[in-house]
Design a protein that fits this description.
Aldo/keto reductase; TIM Barrel; 327 residues; 10 strands; two-stranded antiparallel sheet; AKR2_Oxidoreductase
Length: 327
């Protein structure tokens, strides 16, 4: 395993780490036994960082992490998120009393004394502009309940606003071959500020595995079925805002990236890791096989300058015009 610094903080994280949305809920059926086996496999391979949220399965993924990391609290780091149990537009959701309650609830579910990275979970831009929530997080940090804090954002504009606060240790962004905008300005600014970058949805909800077609179907409780057009939350969280039909069509034009890299999954993750500003990429998983496959991204060849340009041209000309939603 290779490890990267989280910005300029005293925290080194495995460059391939894992997100736990899929094992918590909203990605179809789950199996806790399989999830725990996969978590243990990841840790056995050197993964020391996991990302979760209080709303993933109503806290279920936090509870799974507590079981899997018991006795490893000092060596395995956990990031969790808050605010989506409330009205994200209501300033009271970000008050000292409310955030302390969210934090203490997560600590109890995680069975930890402190959260390594506590993130605001995609707040509206007006909350970021107001900035009061950062003072709340500073207080929780002083109390020792959290070690660092960050923000999971939907847009580059939101990310740039967050960077105005020097205590924001990390930004979590959607970034993949279909969503390249953060690399244009945000990454350089984050590096300049000493802020880490966590990359979520690196496979565009599975499109970049190359396994889907326009006729692929998903279970009723899978967001790829109920949020394809942004019905319940930001459309960019599902299929990179492209939709299944257009997204699978575009993915079919990228099969060449797998040449010499095993498969499209490994290649898509390698492309992200080839951006030095990225602290870690956090793909989801449901079983040991998926963990093993994702971890192989560390070992496959990097993309050449010519390949990187080819993929950027593809994004600009073929992908960007079809992305829905502001990002």
């Amino acid at each position: 395993m290779n490890y990267r610094q989280l910005g300029n903080r005293d925290l080194k994280v495995s460059e391939v780490s894992f997100g736990t949305w899929a094992i918590g809920g909203s990605w179809g059926s789950t199996n806790d036994e399989e999830s725990l086996k996969a978590l243990h496999k990841a840790m056995d391979e050197g993964v020391n960082f996991f990302d979760t949220a209080d709303v993933y399965g109503g806290g279920h993924s936090e509870e799974l992490l507590a079981k899997a990391t018991k006795g490893k609290e000092n060596s395995v780091h956990i990031a969790t998120k808050f605010c989506r149990f409330g009205d994200i537009h209501d300033p009271n959701t970000y008050s000292m009393e409310t955030v302390r309650n969210y934090c203490e609830t997560s600590l109890k579910k995680l069975n930890r004394e402190a959260i390594d990275l506590y993130q605001i979970h995609c707040p509206p831009i007006e909350i970021i502009k107001d900035g009061s929530v950062f003072e709340v997080l500073n207080k929780l940090k002083e109390e020792g309940k959290i070690r660092h804090y960050g923000v999971s954002v939907e847009t580059v504009e939101e990310g740039l606003l967050c960077l105005e606060n020097p205590n924001v240790a990390a930004l979590q962004v959607i970034f993949n071959i279909f969503r390249q905008k953060p690399a244009e300005e945000l990454f350089a600014k984050a590096k300049e500020n000493g802020t880490g970058i966590l990359v979520r949805l690196p496979l565009a909800s599975g499109l970049l595995t190359g396994k889907f077609t326009a006729k692929s179907t998903f279970e009723d409780d899978d967001h790829r079925r109920f949020n394809e057009n942004g019905e319940l939350f930001n459309v960019g969280e599902t299929f990179a805002g492209l939709g299944l039909s257009k997204g699978s069509e575009l993915a079919n034009q990228l099969t060449w990236i797998a040449e010499g890299r095993g498969n499209m999954t490994r290649a898509a993750l390698r492309w992200i890791l080839d951006h030095e500003e990225v602290s870690c990429v956090i793909p989801g998983f449901k079983n040991v096989k998926q963990v093993e496959d994702n971890l192989q991204a560390i070992h496959v060849p990097s993309f050449t300058k010519e390949e990187m340009k080819k993929l950027n041209d593809f994004y600009q000309n073929e992908v960007f015009p079809h992305i829905r939603g502001v990002y």
